[in-house]
Amino acid sequence: MAGKIIVRLPDNVVKKFNPGTSVLEVLGTGKEPGEPLVAIVNGEVAELSKKLYQNATIQPVTINSPLGFRTYEKSLCFLLIKAVNEVLSGARVTIEHSLSKGLYGEIHYNRKINEKDIELIKEKMKEIVSKDEKIEKIKMSKEECKRIFKSYGMKDRLRLLKYIELDYINMYKCGNLYDYFYGPLVPSMGYLNLFDLKLYAPGFILMYPHPEDPETIAPYKDLPKLAKVFRETEKWARILDIADVASLNDKVSSEEINDIILVNEALHEKRIAKIADKIYENKDRIKIVLIAGPSSSGKTTFANRLSIQLKVLGLKPYPISLDDYFVDREYTPLDEKGEYDFESINALDLELFNKHLMSLLNGDEIELVRYNFITGHREWTGKKYKMGDNSVLIIEGIHGLNETLTSSIPKENKFKIYISALTQLNIDNHNRIPTTDVRKLRRIVRDYNYRGRSAEKTITTWHKVREGEEKNIFPFQEEADTMFNSTLVYEMSILKKYAEPLLREIPKDSPAYIEAKRLLILLRYFKTANEEKVIPNNSIIREFIGGSVFHEE
Known about the structure:
single chain, alpha/beta, Threonyl-tRNA Synthetase, Chain A, domain 2, five-stranded parallel beta sheet, 15 helices, Rossmann fold, five-stranded mixed beta sheet, 3 domains
């Protein structure tokens, strides 16, 4: 069998093929839910259409993994854009951000989009899927791409091209439509038979299956408070005149970034002051402020800045750490793997915590406790605390929005705040930046700076962080009295120089390599800003890059 290439597949399966055979032909898989959408070939991400000319090791990737999920999502966006192009000639689609297990976007047309339009687009999508229209990957010169984008009126793409330092760019073609996507796509539209499309004025929600249940689409759950925060962030972006990554890069290049930093920080401070004002207006009843949010959302800095604003108003904020109310280690609940589940709400001594809160609200004095993480036991400190007339407790932790945490406290005495980094800044109109990417990069930098952890370790344990968030934080976010978006429109241009060297250290044989390379490609779109001296020492970003007035260096 001279001239054949050897291909190694999972379960120690070894086969021989003619050179030029595609990954899809090697796998011999179909398009049903749960089938491979993309593959890892010799340690690198490869589309199923990739042709093989040398020996290879192939790992098929399904929607159950983050890589497969992103491939499905991006491919579905291409399907939607093509359908809109055919139903509403001249319309422009913007994919904006995630919302309730789906994507929120808008269709810009010469009139408002209605239910009938959405139904026609959805039917067209189904038709394209049934025809299994082919998706071709074509390498084009920047000049060719420029001509295509200009003919489509894609000003966002034309701006972005200035900052892509490549002679050739991978474009995607389906029928007569060309588009650009950051990341791999499926070989044809027939893979995308699971989706839904709903009107969500003034835009739409594109729904699709998720890794935890790849064969169904979760029912839509409205999140009006979260949607409002995204709208507010979009308004801030207009104030700052930054619509996408290229707009930010323009500011960095023109040295306007200093003003952007100062204005963005002022917007944060104004928002925090408004939250403090709201608490003060109800100071006679609000005695407990609960702050919750996912990892690396900037909870610590936010809590400190809020405390300062409350002090300005004459209140006396006092921090209570949930960490000090852990049960003794031997009583910590176990997860499905038999390991300690420190993120479970039952890892806290809820009875003692509520007893202390009730005593404080009744005007009694309590003895403060401290949890010893070395011994795994609670210790009584001998220190006492009693609330005064203007006192307010500040409690920060992942379970802050869960009523179970403070079940004995009347709702009118509590004020709940949800904080997260909800980025509105995208690469362009068709390529969004997931909010989890911003938080992941923040955590990579902070873990290295303050916790002695490598980027490799942060990436390989991120899935556990996300599992905890999905279970303990996100289901309760709409319970918040107010939400704070901690994202800073300029932060990726700052994080870039801290994160890149850490990501480059990850070797190719590491399980974190694929994700590290994806993040490096994402950061490549951003122009590095060297404006750290301008960033205030109480900024959210200081919690991660260093120099925070609230952090003991």
